[in-house]
Specification:
The chain is of the alpha+beta class. 22% of the residues lie in helices and 31% in strands. The chain contains 31 helices and 72 strands. It has a five-stranded antiparallel sheet, with no helix packed on it. A five-stranded antiparallel sheet has the order 44-45-46-47-48. It has a five-stranded antiparallel sheet with strand order 57-58-59-60-64, with no helix packed on it. A hairpin with a 5-residue loop joins β41 and β42.
Length: 1329
Amino acid sequence: MRGPSQMITRAVEEQHGGAEAFNYTLRLQLLLEPLSYAVDLRRLAQRATGTRWRWQEAESWLGQGPAGQRVLCVAAGAGEGKSTVAAAICMGMPREGLGAGVGANVGRAGEVVVADRSVIAAHHFVKYNDQRRLEPLRIIKSLACQLATTLPVVREALLQLDAAVVARLADVGQAFQMLLAKPLEAWDKKAERDEQIVLLLDALDEADPPRQRLQQQQRVHPGAQSAELAGSQALRLSAASSLMVGPRPPPDCPIIAGNPALQLVSEWLHKLPRRVRFMLTTRPEAARGQAQADQVEDLLAVLLAAQEPLPLTLLQQVGLGDQALLALLPGWPALFFVEQHRAHTFHKSLADYLLTRCVHGGTIGASSARPTGARLAPGPGLTLDLQRGHFIIGARLTQTRRPALTAYALRHLVPHLVAATQEPEGGDGGGGAASITVAGWAAAAAFRSAASRGAAMAMLDEVLLDMDYMQAAIDAGYGHAIVGALGAMRVHSDVSAEALRYLRARLHEVGPKDRLVESILKHTPRGSLLYGAAVRSSGCRWLNQVVIPAAPAATEGGHSAEWPISEAVFQARNSMLLSIALSPDSKQLAIGTAGNKIFVYDIVAVRQLLVLKPQLATPPPLRRDRKVGAARRHSDSSRDGSEDDGGACSGGGYGDSYGPSRGGDSSPIRRDSEGDEDTVGAAVSGSDWNDPEFGDGQLGEVRGIAFSPDGSRMAAGGGMGIVQVFDVATGQVAMTLQGLGGFAQRGGVNCVRFSPCGIFLAAASDGDYVYIHNASTGRGVILLDDHQRSVDCLAFSSAPLDGAGGPELLATGGEDCVVNIYMVGNWRRVARLEPGRGALHGPDGHDAAVKSVAFNPAVAEEAASSDDGGAIRVWRLTRRPDRADKFLVTVLQRLAGPAHEAVSALAYAPDGRHLACGGDRGTVRLYDARTWLVAAEFREHERRIRELVYSRDGRHLVSGCEDSTAVLFNLEQVMASARSMMAVTAAAAGVSGGGAPRLRVKRRVTSLACQPCGRHVAMTVDVHVVATGADSHAVEVHDVQTGKLIAEPSVPRGMYGRCVVYSGDGKHLVLGCHHKLLLYDVAAGYSSPHDVSAFIGLRYPHDALAAGPSVALLAHCSNRRLVIDDCVQRCRVAELPNVHKELIRAVTISADGTLIATGGDDRTVRIHGLGPRGWRANLAVLSGYSDWLRGVAFSPDGALLAAGGDDDRVCIYRRADRSRGGTSSAGPQPPELLPQPHPEQPLHDWQLVSTVAADPGVCDMAFSREGSFLAVGCHGGRLLVLDATASAPQVMDTLHGHSAKITGVAFSSSGALVSGDVSGSVRVWSLPA
């Protein structure tokens, strides 16, 4: 044993320098799990054998030390040796080759030493086909591990961290601070004056998103036809989910900060101490795009389709892991090789080469007659199919996803299957226009058939319906990847379309508290395939057979009214939403918040791309800031309200130059006393961003945000009076517009908009100004100061007046109740809409602050504006006959927004057929622009809607609300739901002899009851009616088995039902109204109700009702009073005052009619009994509850009593006769029991036998007719079914289907369970035979 021990000790000393170094190296490896780069360095070193190097530039840069330039960037094209240069630098910058330096120049942990000076302290090699190397967290951990190996101070700081905390790190900023910033700050304090460390990051361009890589390839090879490159599925959305449909789709916009490696450098790494310097290698066009590898057949296709280097075991499972087969790959073992039991692709330039040869009609490989064992080489007849690779990987992962779910399968299985299911564009049946096929490999031909694509689609459906797999993938954080893959499908199956629709709308809700199966049962139609899979997975025995009201199965376009109208929800986490903007291609959504943050989401994948945190560089006060506001542009005529030229620029008409004019007193560029130009706004370039003269600060509230028409820039205006313009591709600030409104003294920027031509950028200010800037240079063009108070909104016309080539318009609205209209270019005010202008304006103008204005895209001269008073004005501009350069404002329609709400947002549909308005209480209303009738109204928010934006195709609407959410609505689904709730009544429209639509947009079931010996279920319903803007209250009776409406019992005007109950014999229905009791005869069709309250002397409102064995016994609660009446004889039986100390909320009567139980706000359940001398109160008091009681119920035999409320539990008691010695004391201890027995009543006790958790609180409960089940409805929409026959009843089934608070639970005579909720949905559940 001594020999091996010495050998191990010697190996540890040789490789690590000693046991101590080996110990901390092992601890760092376990703590940080760094990536390994040994394969990259070794292969690059072998490739550089014989190379002669000149390092003068690098050595000169290193010699400058910390005082020199911080970054050295090596820029070159694809395949020109950037990574080889990086490897050579890591190897110590040898003069010749790298092979000799592979071991000699590498220290114990990868540190490279040359001339006794540390050159590279840590390095990272980015690889486009290894997703691990693109994740910022993995990059940070790998760099930290390398630094800890060479820097004792860093190592000491990292080894003190809690491993569990490090393992749970998910936020990039937190990981950066913990693993890099703080340890290096500690090193910086102890470092010598000239000491420095260098971090090397290679191939930043390989982290570009695939879509941008393909676009860059198109730029690199301009001769390629765009149609050929369009075969990439990543560039398109399906017709079912695309937000960009039109005859001339715009080019794809860059993904905001889509390069994670570049974002890590620009956002975080540059914040490290100044002694930390960087070497970067990249293409010159990094962050603009790179080429995407397309296709290679079978093994070659699998390797290029893989998202990570594949293990040989997986290749062997699909029959492609044979070494002889691997040796036939083109360029083996240089371009393809095996290391660490994984198959690697050497360099991204291989993918570029394959795609380039394909695009230009070249071929790769050898003739089909090649000799056995010959390697593939360039030649005729060789093509390849990337879809084949996706199919092979997807099929194998589908077969082996159980029992073990690997991380690769969770992340990439669905994307692989999606790529394998889609038919290539052009209908060639192959791998797309850019395809490379191998002659003699017959598998590709089989895959091209529709049957093979059908097999891939069947596997995709199987995976999407596997609830266990989907839950595991979502828990692992890959839900957004699945949504993104499904969103890119051009052809959908029923399952994939349903899965995409559901996941986009509800993925944000799926988590530990709301599992996937529960969420699907709540939010998908019963007839959907997803719903059926969720039912099978849940194992629940109760099936939802009927939904009331029944929605149409499908409408025009296949939209079921049962689907939610919200298609996706985007959250501004922990911050109030103030503004939203859609990119021109409608694929990205930017959300501005009150917390100085801009959240950017991928619309299709519903995935947060990044969070921009604008940092403000504040310049010192300038003289021009003191001059702002000194020369207002109002003329004398404008002061008295008459039309004027608005201070027009000299030079006149629309066709003049867009630049700032010079000369004349009305020039928008003012001059100070020394004659220097005093521009309205100043642009600060990105180079001045870190100027030490500027202080640190923030943009403040992001009140306005807008994309430029080409999508390359994004402007954001903040509460600090600043506008920042971002470069979309990099996410960096391109320029900052300073001096708006005298900076902070003049208030913030409320709204920003780009002109449709993209030349101008307008900003509305709190300081009653509108600032017009040149969008390219940032220089101020003009200041519009015709408003007297804050300007809250502005809008450009999307279509020019007088057809193509005509002028564009700008409309502004403010708190002075005025709308000003300007001509873009010469900036003359051409029209004005204001209150108090006589017959022309008068009542047509606004009488409250104007909060939104929008132009009709289809009619350039038509627009709409809204105000805080809830008024909407639709107006048209017509040229004045006396002055062609002036316009008259004619109000076409005076509309009202949602009832009792200020209208805070407006938006026209792209085709001009609908006008959407949003209220300050979260309601959205759609008007038909042809008839100006309400087309739909819905409410998914609870607070003020800040902005409404239509998608480019007009099929979707995004609403941004102060409740920190932006919701994407499918307008076809909205209209389908609206049509399903439409009722035609002449009374509601106020038109004699005809009907107009009355839209029921909000139902709320407040109580329900089932007929004891029939098929009827009665419910009280609150309905909001758009036509009147008020709530109506109704009673509906439905058939339990079919859901069909049987009757609508009439309710006298001014009354509304609070609770409803059937008599014990089922012949009468009793409705409790405010101070009234109405009795309906079932046999007479529920007509002509009898008001029995006058005969029994009722003086109090009803809070709860319960019926005994016959209608003669009716118990109802009013405040703290229990009243027992005989409704047939119309007389009072008993009145028990003050049975509770506070409000009574629940009451129930035993089956024999001798006991009544009540529960109330005093947190007690009280039992009252009937004796020979009448009713006595409080025979027993069950206390110990911590919150209000909302439900009580007796079992049919009277042996059990259940009670529950807001303390999140159900307590079940069993009655025991005292003469029999009571019940067993086993089980949980009951709450405090205070019996008050009546001498004439049989003695009995109530003992707690079971306590069941009912989170989040109980609303109602009921026993089944035979006493086998107890149903409990909860606040969160869950329905619990307990086994009442057990000695200690427990939950046997949990029913999911309600998405809101359950307000009523009852069992029908047939054993069906009926439940209703506040969203107006009533569901009927039954057990299969």
